Amino acid sequence: MTARLIDGKALSDQIKADVAERVRALKQRGVTPGLAVVLVGDDPASHVYVRNKAAACEKAGLYSQVIRLPADIPEDQLLDIVRGLNGDPDIHGILVQLPLPAHLNAGKVIETIAAEKDVDGFHVSNAGLLMTGRPLFRPCTPYGVMKMLESENVSLWGAEAVVVGASNIVGKPMAMLMLAAGATVTLCNSKTRDLAAQTRRADVLVVATGKPGMVTGDMIKPGAVVIDVGINRSASGKLVGDVDFESARKVAGAITPVPGGVGPMTIAMLLVNTLEAAERSAVPATID
Ligand code: NDP
């Protein structure tokens, strides 16, 4: 058996085309969705991500503003810049590219973003809303995974879902979204005693650890849907996931490739979140 490939590139193109259509409609009502991306320092990978985000915005007709700041910017200055964006009516979404230089408190910076402009969904209020089943912004990567499962008609209702990796930006919100969709969710971390025993139970397995190739075919239930969130650069410069693709594809029913799987979905969902923030801001005030 060879697993069906889940094509994140094609699905993300479809979502972006849909966003472009909705942006056109919103512009006719006088609102252009605007995203501000704050980039501190000169981490090369962050520069690439930010460039890609800005290019995707432009292509879909959104306004984007990239604010590049020196690595040694004092924290209070950065917080003032974020507060300025909170009050800017042309900006509907604010994203601070992580990781931040060590002298900056990432939690404090994210908590300074107005929750209604927090298109990454990392603010504690948005994490709390997601946990209590009233999401405002779903974090882009797990949101993209949910769209992929939906497009593949994978039913989560009553399914065994296992998430390997429990970060605030991927694993934990992923678990919450699948739980809300009716799955029985197991969330694993680096202390999980027998990881293979957990992963082998999964009808849907999501892996987000940053450990290249750590989930191998023998850890997968035959026919399972395997979503590989990992993006790692191998010694030869190739992009590889957290799942060992060659052994996994022989066992899984469906699998995402790296690259071309979850990666493109993350940017597409960022556009969706920014568009929806702008749509919400454009709702005319009702007079009681
Ligand atoms: P973090 O480093 O923040 O978290 C990694 C998680 O994996 C932790 O919970 C850690 O456990 C767990 N973990 C590490 N090793 C093991 C192990 N051997 N067994 C079980 N669990 C383990 O990573 P992120 O969530 O930020 O990113 C994960 C991966 O996803 C990376 O490859 C990253 O590049 C990629 N990524 C891809 C995105 C995309 O757009 N496709 C977006 C964001 C990330 P513990 O909590 O115990 O430390």
From TrEMBL:
Catalysis: reaction(s):
(6R)-5,10-methenyltetrahydrofolate + H2O = (6R)-10-formyltetrahydrofolate + H(+); (6R)-5,10-methylene-5,6,7,8-tetrahydrofolate + NADP(+) = (6R)-5,10-methenyltetrahydrofolate + NADPH
Binding annotation for NADP(+):
G165, A166, S167, I231
Q: Which GO cellular component terms are attached?
A: cytosol
Q: Where is the Tetrahydrofolate dehydrogenase/cyclohydrolase NAD(P)-binding domain?
A: 139-281
Which superkingdom?
A: Bacteria
Q: What is its EC number?
A: 1.5.1.5, 3.5.4.9
Signal peptide stretch: none
Q: What is this protein called?
A: Bifunctional protein FolD
- The species this protein belongs to is Parapusillimonas granuli
